[in-house]
Amino acid sequence: MAKSQKKRDIPAGAVAVATNRVARRDYDILDELECGIVLKGSEVKSLRESKVQLADTYAIFFQNELWFVGLNISSYSHSSAAFAHQTDRRRKLLARRSQLDEWSSRADREGLAMIPLALYFKDGRAKLHLALARGKKQHDRRQEIAKRDADREAARAIARARRG
Questions:
Q1: Domains, the chain
Q2: pLDDT tens string 71-95
Q3: Cβ-Cβ contacts under 8 Å for 48 (sequence gap 6 or more)
């Protein structure tokens, strides 16, 4: 995905690589977590060139560790085939054990998904803004759009009344 214009999911001082724009539209975000990613050298260089796609990615727990699945990091433009990385391998995520235990039990108990919101560099290290989320139903999205339209119309009416 392209770089986001909204800096909502990226902390101050961080350099955005990619954002998941549809995450907040399709999911109710319940909790958020910043975690590191275990990467190879050519993957880091590709990330610096923003050659990454966050669409259809998610995190899973496997043997008490958090893994990121579906992240496609394209090959680095100046690397040879001998030093190239696999573009779609699973990558380990780094977070505190207490946070991982809490998220693991909560995801199993409530049937929640772990989806990425943004990928960025913070102090020279690649970080992932991960969210614990519940999928929205179609009618939930329609209600959200109707509420937003009603709020917008009310704001316009107030503005017209102030003008006279």
A1: 15-136 (2.40.280.10)
A2: 888 877 766 565 566 677 899 999 9
A3: 17, 121
Residues across the chain: 164
Tokens 């960025």 found at: 120
Nearest-angstrom CA–CA distance, 106 and 23? 19
Residue 34, classed as helix, strand or coil, is: strand
* Residue type at 118 in one-letter notation: A
The whole-angstrom separation of Cα 111 and Cα 135 is: 10
Which of these, 69, 132, 135, lies nearest to 104 by C-alpha position? 132
Amino acid letter for position 27: Y
Which stretches of the chain are DSSP H helices?
23-26, 41-48, 97-110, 138-163
Cβ-contact 34, 127 below 8 angstroms: yes
- Is-above-0.90 flag for pTM? no
Amino acid at residue number 135: G
